[in-house]
């Protein structure tokens, strides 16, 4: 059938380049959510993205807007520079958990603490994807990776880092939220969070970070469908979803 | 009547769309595509109600949805 109204098609902000992601990896979904929000807010022409090091290192090939490629973990520093020099531009970084929560923790913490008015899309899949499935700061207790074949031992390496909660405790106003990409209703809810984060930047209100729980079927050793279920069963209990901080609740307390 | 179109050259055969389709419209093809994956394909397309759930979960944006006539709103949007 060729007639009828198109109700779902590729957003203009996403190029037609096929992605290099593994089958079932929800990075593609996260890309699409950001692209849809750029289209809906009509800000594509003045948007600059900052790509990380990690699985999303080729993000500049997939988005149809200006892009920078940052050094490992330093995307918030790049974004700070762009946003301070050209405040009228919309700046976002797209980072994974190895990039943001591990090597780049200082950058993101201080960018959030300074209240830099850009948006961070943080993709958390609880493992280092690109380098072959090593333990990340966000790896869950007992989760098997190539560098913890017996499962993450919290006695030795501590508990997984909840970056969103960590940033939500800062006194500086910000918008911190966490969504998931395991199924249609979670994706729709996550898109709302991404959109709000970008709206805060368009309004010039505050720093925004949206953490998106993502799957890594290849390195988790699961099928894409089982990986989505694993997010529900294992990740969401440890990483609760929702808005953790809004700019109006700038008391340093985590909003309910 | 609604219709889903799957770009079989982009599809990586993750089967997420087949799982979420409430009408069981989508299935896995028996032929591999140029990437070497078994892509999703439309089975009985007349059952499609244009809910867009397949397109929402597709990580490779390989699905386009058209609606014509009466269809159901997806989650009130």
Task: Summarize the helices and strands and which ones pair or pack.
The complex is a heterodimer of chains A (about 260) and B (about 80).
Chain A: E1 5-8, H1 27-41, E2 47-51, H2 59-62, E3 66-69, H3 75-85, E4 90-96, H4 97-103, H5 105-114, E5 119-124, H6 154-157, H7 163-168, E6 174-180, H8 184-202, E7 207-213, H9 217-220, H10 224-238, E8 242-245
Parallel strand pairs in A: 2-3, 2-4, 4-5, 5-7, 6-7
Antiparallel strand pairs in A: 6-8
Chain B: E1 2-6, H1 16-20, E2 26-28, E3 40-42, H2 53-57, E4 63-67
Antiparallel strand pairs in B: 1-4, 2-3
> Into how many domains do the coordinates of chain B divide?
1
- Strand portion of chain B: 15-25%
Name the poorly predicted regions of chain A: none
Placed side by side, the strands forming the largest sheet of chain B appear as: 1-4
By oligomeric state, this entry counts as heterodimer
What fold name stands as the CATH topology of chain B? Alpha-Beta Plaits
- State the major sheet of chain B: 2 strands, antiparallel
Secondary structure tally, helices of chain A: 10
- Main structural class of chain A: alpha/beta
The CATH class of chain A, by name, is Alpha Beta
Characterize the largest beta sheet of chain A: strand count, sense, and whether it forms a barrel: 7 strands, mixed
Helix coverage percent of chain B: 10-25%
| Helix and strand run of chain A | EHEHEHEHHEHHEHEHHE
- Would you identify the CATH architecture of chain A? 3-Layer(aba) Sandwich
End-to-end C-alpha gap of chain B: 19 Å
If interface size is counted as residues with C-beta under 8 Å from the partner's C-beta, which chains form the largest one? A-B, 33 and 34 residues
CATH class of chain B: Alpha Beta
Q: What gyration radius of chain A follows from the Cα positions, in whole Å?
A: 17 Å
Secondary structure tally: strands of chain A: 8
Q: Which ranges of chain B are low-confidence, i.e. pLDDT below 50, for 5 or more consecutive residues?
A: 73-77
CATH fold-level topology of chain A = Rossmann fold
């Amino acid at each position: 059938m060729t007639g009828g109204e198109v109700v779902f098609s590729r957003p203009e902000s996403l190029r037609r380049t096929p992605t290099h992601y593994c089958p079932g990896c929800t990075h593609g979904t996260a890309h699409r959510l950001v692209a849809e929000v750029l289209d809906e807010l009509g800000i594509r022409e003045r948007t600059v993205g900052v790509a990380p090091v990690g699985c999303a290192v080729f993000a500049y090939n997939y988005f149809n807007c200006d892009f920078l490629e940052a050094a490992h973990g330093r995307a918030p520093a790049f974004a700070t520079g762009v946003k301070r020099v050209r405040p009228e531009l919309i700046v976002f970084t797209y980072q994974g958990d190895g990039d943001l929560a591990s090597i780049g923790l200082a950058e993101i913490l201080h960018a959030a603490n300074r209240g830099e008015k850009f948006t961070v899309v943080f993709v958390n899949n609880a493992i280092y994807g690109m380098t072959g499935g090593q333990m990340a700061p966000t790896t869950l207790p007992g989760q098997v990776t190539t560098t913890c074949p017996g499962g993450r031992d919290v006695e030795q390496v501590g508990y997984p880092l909840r970056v969103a909660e960590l940033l939500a405790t800062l006194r500086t106003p910000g918008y911190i939220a966490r969504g998931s990409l395991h199924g249609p209703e979670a994706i729709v809810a996550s898109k709302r969070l991404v959109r709000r984060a970008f709206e805060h930047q368009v309004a010039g209100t505050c720093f925004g970070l949206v953490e998106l729980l993502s799957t890594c079927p290849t390195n988790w050793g699961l099928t894409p469908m089982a990986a989505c279920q694993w997010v529900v069963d294992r990740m969401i209990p440890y990483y609760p979803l929702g808005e953790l901080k809004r700019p109006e609740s700038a008391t340093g307390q985590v909003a309910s | 009547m609604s219709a889903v179109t799957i770009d079989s050259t982009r599809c990586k055969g993750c089967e997420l769309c087949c799982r979420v389709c409430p009408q069981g419209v989508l299935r896995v093809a028996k032929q591999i595509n140029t990437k070497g994956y078994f892509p999703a394909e439309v089975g009985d397309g007349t059952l499609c109600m244009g809910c867009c759930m397949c397109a929402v979960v597709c990580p490779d944006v390989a699905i386009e949805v058209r609606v014509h006539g009466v269809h159901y709103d997806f989650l009130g949007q």
